[in-house]
Fold each of these.
Amino acid sequence: MYRRFLDERKRAGRFSRLLDVFRGPRDVAPSAEEVVIARASLESFGRLPPEQRALMLLVAVEGLSYGEAAEALGVPIGTVMSRLSRARKALRELTDNDVSPPSLRVLK
């Protein structure tokens, strides 16, 4: 039970930025930095291939197990695990490389 709790906490922490985007408005207004990071993360998520994006939504957002996701998509569980691994790696690379400050315009 304790290991399951730890696994769930790790999973929630890993994708907390994505979950924040899908949860909607909060009581406190986000900072400009949080908005830029959230937009960059969402844009990076949108650049994933459709099958990886669907799998990430099922597992990370909906909280389905690998078996349930495999059944929902009609693919073997090994395919789910490899796609999810590739999706997480691609999202990490996209998010780590893309979070840049917004470009500034020169005003005269």
Amino acid sequence: MVETRKFQVEMEINGEMTEIEIRAGETLLHVLRNKLGLTGPKPGCLNGDCGACTVMVGELPFKSCIMLAVEAVGHKITTIEGLHDTPIQRAFIEHFAFQCGYCTPGFIINCHSLLQNHPNPSGETIKSWLSSNICRCTSYQEINEAVRSVIKSD
């Protein structure tokens, strides 16, 4: 039997340094959920299509189901648990931009990152960023309205 290599690493997750043992082939999603108890990122398709597992790595959204945990070492990782009463979270509530809620954390992280990178995005930019996440329960109209409601006007 081949022994899987393990690494003792420090990771910055939601603003806190965490020391953890990871294996070379473990996904970031697995480490976050099963080793650290951060269940906001959800397993959906597990192949990078649906976006339910979206987290921020640095300032950009990444699908944690297809990112190895070792790739995230040295980067700031933000999950939904790391956001606290952000404008986009309030906007999702105010605009009913969810139904069952399973995909909502991934959408919120993606939209938060969008607004961090593009404070005044065009409609086309919003559409492009939202296309990386899939929801089977609700229309994208409410999510789009939530994003538009927090855009900073100059």
Amino acid sequence: MSALMQGPPEGRVRVVTADAVAPLWTGERGSHARLMLTTSGPAPVEVWRWQLEPDEEYPSNPHQAGVVETVSVTSGRMILVVDGTEHTVEAGQTATFDGDTPHTYRGSGTETCNLIMTVHLPPSPASTP
């Protein structure tokens, strides 16, 4: 993990500003995804900020077994497609799913969708008893 991803040390707290993190994905209509940070420890969690423009989508390949994702929509609306089934997730709603199946994030409606995504990674084999 780079120093930029960790943010400046503030004792036990790391603060990362979205503008300081380059998008890891940018769509043709202006959508983007930023990996804000990855926690340390035996079962890391990635924290992402996403912006999805209407009808723009990001298809994701299945992750390794044990990966769990959550999406919390803070404004707008998205369509979450998991294993071919569409689920509408609106502002104020959170959805969770096993990430080991094909999934897609799609902006829906007429306004920009903003969301926070967490990716919970399984413990590494070395950390399990």
Amino acid sequence: MRVVPFDERFDTSTFECLDEHLTAYLKEGRAVRDLNSGQAAVFLLVDAAGRVLGYYTLSAASVDRKAHFTNSQGKQFGYPQVAVTLLGRVAVHRELKGQGVGTDLIVHALKQAARASETVASYAVILDAKNERVAAIYARLGFVPFKDQPLKMFLPMATIRQLE
């Protein structure tokens, strides 16, 4: 398996994850729309036959320093908005559930975001965990919640760069 930028030549027809909205995003053309409009970069996990087994999206974003960070976290920023990278969607084929593929895909996304931040500055990767179970998965990877929203989490690029 390998991770590649989205390309319509890869077969999305058999992709099924446990979340119907994440499946539909890929299979119903929303990923293509977001890619073409510049709203998201989409990366695919594909096998040797070109079947899509997972994907993630990254987008540029910003968050309000005072609203989201504690005083000690936010005092390092000189501007009211903090540049970040949004990890918008992560999905893995249902057949791969429980095999660690999702975590590997997230780590790939983090490293991709860190490489991009060398060209276009970004303080952290942020995400919206849909529930506490998902938030716990991200917490194990080092993500911490924003002060005002426990399911909205961030991981600084400095921490990501230390991942092996």
